[in-house]
Fold these 3 entries.
Entry 1:
Amino acid sequence: MKYIKLLLLLFVTNICFAQTAIIKQDINIKNMVNDVSAKNVEATVRKLVSFGTRHTLSDTTSKTTGIGAARNWIKSEFEKYSTESGGRLKVSFDTFIQPADGNRVPKDATLKNVLATLPGTDPTDDRIFIVSGHYDSRVSQANDAVSKAPGAVDDASGTATVMELARVMSKQKYSATIIFMAAVGEEQGLYGATHLAKKAKAEGWNVVAMITNDIVGNTYGEQTDLKDNRSVRVFSEGVPVTETKQEGGLRIAVGGENDSPAREFARYVKEVAERYVDQLEVKLIYRRDRYLRGGDHTAFSQEGFAAVRFTEMNENFNRQHQDVRVEKGVDYGDMPDFADYNYIQKVCRMNLSVLANIAKAPAAPVNVGIVTSDLTNNTTLKWEAPKSAKPAGYYILMRETTSPYWEKKIYVTENQVTLPYSKDNYFFAVQSVDAEGHESSIVFPKPVR
């Protein structure tokens, strides 16, 4: 009887153990992750709040208040980081005239995004990654350009994230180019992001992925009474808004409605961020943005780029888009004392790990396809190497059709592989990988003969 009980105990114990997961970290990326400072983030948020209001249409001439003072200070900070990087970080205003829209822009206005570009080191690698936060703020009335609008979480938290990324990442080198963007005009209609997205499209930029950090500094939901400092939401669109009728037909035929470039990038974010950042759970939210709402990534999605949004788990609507006041003992307004700076630090580390890993990686394989010339229960995938630096190998990714993220990675060095799994029952994808383990973006295959 004791023997039977022992066997039963061993059996139960064994089935409760999960499979061992091996996590390989790049020590250089891990050191950068550790270099991200909550104190720096807090100092940046408080400095941005000190400008009184950063409303897009506020004062542009004062040196201490308004949107003009804020953007000049952001640019000066980027320039400090550039000096520390040996001048490799290129800082500029992205200036444009925003015509009156009859709504939140009552008259033509000169607006300025603040950009800090870190050029890639490989001249054959034209990939660009963009990370943004918007530096404008607002209160209850969207067109109130004079009232105190601290915007600590919405979105000094995102701007501080981008600035800390530029400070840390500009000291290192990457194969691809990274653009750090402090965007203007988000609260008036995504105008800064729209301007840059249209420019990128018109000039043929190879924007592989774009991240916007918008409202990433609060951990308490006032209505749900939930506090969560471990979870971050990543929003990604399913069916691309730019999809053609032909592309739509192919998507329906292969069942690819959950495998857009934005969804693949969101899955990439989850895997890599959780590899490097402790006490972090990336929540994949399968919609472009929150219910009936939008952000700066939307502008890039509308131009056909893979774009995602990072946002805190529980928004506090007593803070967001509120006049600063106290009513019935309740504080309203987006003040800096209510932000969680250790949480913003975690979000910044999440951004950094993803951007560093993918910018160090080789470009993705091209012409990735599933061979359909014969009916078979096997699946044959084939692809070509990218035109820039040749990868050390490739990962074939595999998941159940009901799984939200990739479950298996198979390392190969050849460019055509046959797997004993049916394309009817699983989804597949391919990504490049270098000798150090940095993975490229993920490519969902098309049917080929």
Note: The first strand starts at residue 90 and ends at 98.
Entry 2:
Amino acid sequence: MKAFALFLLLLFGCLLLANIMVNDTGYVLIAYENMTFESTLWGLCLVILLLAGVVWLVSGLIRMLFGATSFIYPLTARAKQRHARKLSLRGFAEFTHGHWKKAEKLLVQAAEAGETPLLTYLAAARAAHEAGNHDASTDYLRRADHKAPGADLAIGITQAQIQLSAGQLEQALATIKRMHKKEPRHAFVLKLLKQVYCRLNDWQSLAALLPKLKRLKVIDDQEYRELELQSFEALFKQASSNSRGAMSDDERAKPLQRIWNDLSSAQRRDPVILYRYASSLVQLGLEKKAAPVLREHLPKCYSADLILLFGKIRSNDLKRQLLFTESILKERPNDPDLLLSAGRLALRNELWGKAREYFEASLKFSKRADTYNELGRLLAHLGEHEASNRYFQEGLLLAADTVIDLPGTGKSLQSFKI
């Protein structure tokens, strides 16, 4: 209905225009110097319409011509950009699928066409590296630097990752240190530096870097703790290994003391780090140097490992060592590890009765094989062989994973005296 009404309205308009054109054709005269142009008004309008149609047709043909030629060979900047973008998208798609050679080819073509050359050259370098074409990878990084001279950080990070992946740790370290000098607070550069230190087993450099990693929140508290303990365990182990050839006690202790002196006050109060240091001294036969260190720090950073170690070492003053242990025992009277250490020190001081009391008290709070063994040794020394055998047997049963029947007897080990 609406279409029919519109048709009637259009028809009426055409008839009205035709009537006007018949009744009054109009007259137009255009004169310029010696030239004149005469026409009816409606004739001039028709000429203008024809000229507009010709211009529209010619412009359309020109657009079609340039569109067709651009499809074959990109002549315009816009066509080049479209072509490069397509190459780039195809290259990154092949890169994500692991088709390294195809990705390298497409990405290099996209970079040379001028579409984001930095990103595409960096991706091409990674693809070439994965494909085993290391010379091409280096060349693409140089091209990226030439195309984007201000992008040193992005290029350096890519180069370092490629070097780490190839196992070129020394070269990677040099690259990362160069970036770290320019951007000392850059989180990803710090992560790469941490990674290369770990792979190089450069624990001293890693230990020095850890506080900065924690302060800038590059790593969380758990990773910091793990790396800290790993670093100092390795450092103390290396120092112990390097000290074994030294003749005097002072010379053997120097590498360990150097590490200890470089620690912060908080690290010296850490029970695990303190145990690593003291146990390293003991392993080198430097018990007399380990004892004062433990006496100084045990009250503030007590742990089972530390007190057990303190109970095993032999200091210059065994009586003082026992009195110190007993002073801690006043604050921890129900600690089985502390009681065991006190018993061992009482043994060294030849205080048999006190040692027995400490061992028996320790067994009340915790059944330990080494406590049974110490008490068995003490009772054997005192001539109480039956009780001594009983404690030895209990210790052996506790230390064994399982108790099996003896062959041909059907009786378990519990039926026999030791």
Note: Residues 41-72 form the longest helix (32 residues).
Entry 3:
Amino acid sequence: MLARYFQASLVKRIMWAFVLGCIIGGIAHAAGWGFPEKLAVLGDIFVAGLKAVVIPVIFFSLLSGATTIETDKFGSVGKRVVMSYGLTILVAALVGTIMALSFNVGSGFALEGISSSVTGAQNLGADSISGTLYNTFIGALANPFSALSSSNFLGVIVAALVIGIALKVNEESHPGSPLVKIIGHVNDTMLTIVGWVMHFAPIGIFGIVVSSIGVYGATLAGTFASILGALVAAMVFVALIVYPLTHYLLARQNPYAVMWRIFKTAGVTAFFTRSSAATLPVSIATMDDMGVDQSVSRFALPIGATMNMTGAAITVAVFTIFAANVFEVHLGLMELMIVIFSAAIVSVGAGGVPSGSLMLLFVSLNALGLSADQSGLVVGLAFTLTAIQDSFETCLNVFGDNVITHGVDQSLKS
């Protein structure tokens, strides 16, 4: 029995856990049974595991990624690729925020006993924005050991990137340094631990869904529908409007002529595998078939698989707005700008992390002023939708990698 559980794919286990949780929770809510609330402990254990590993996973994933940057290729191709990826990520975060506000995700959905514990988050008014930005900037420059111990997410990200790039530069001057290999092994070890935590995900999600629906009933179904609506609408907009526009600005040709060829190969593969890395060979073959220069595709696609996370930016933005509505955090224009930029920045680190966008959601929620417990609750709820969300997200990420790679190649040939 236990062997069959571990042999089944994680997606199937999560989907069955979600379905069973909805059925049992719905029956319990209708019958007025109180036992679903006790099953919330399963979700608490799962979220606690995520919170325990998220900081070291982010640190070593970014550190390992920074040491693999091929600086010798970072010329005209690199500038076009990185600028295109960066701009589309920022636009995606903006689109995700607008869609989340349009769908009003999380509004009126109060979490009993938790929303009242927000500490100072509702008072992030215009008068405190300069102080918030100052503290954010100073926090980014924190001692890496202090950042790790205090769960200063932005400080961890900046430290990992700076140390990783420095290690890469040093490694180029002194080839064969064992430290880079050790960091790679440590990163693999951390991802193995995440894999262990994710084996518990179906059980934790079952506890979250049963306890949530057992308490809130159909209200939660409406909330889930609004979140998925905002996510899918934002991703479709980016796929059909933002990426084609980016391709046109690069190549000055009709982008829709190449989009179908990309979608039916790399896009469909990414949707079902839910892995940018696993789809990379298909993406490379697709670009080869479309006549893209290999010096461009071999550089742009691997970078895109780790950096171009427009889907993750949308996911982080939507769930951040959801959290703000649930915990009644006031978001003015400046606060919304912080949400957009934080979603764009943290999404870049989602590539090497399993369920990366949801793991890195901790960073954005921390910037919003939520406590660790509140952030954990939002992330736990987000994981109940991961089977659907992650498929659309990965499809968009890989689709964008290919569209931009083709556009850059055409811009260099014109």
Note: Residues 112-133 have pLDDT under 50 and may be disordered.
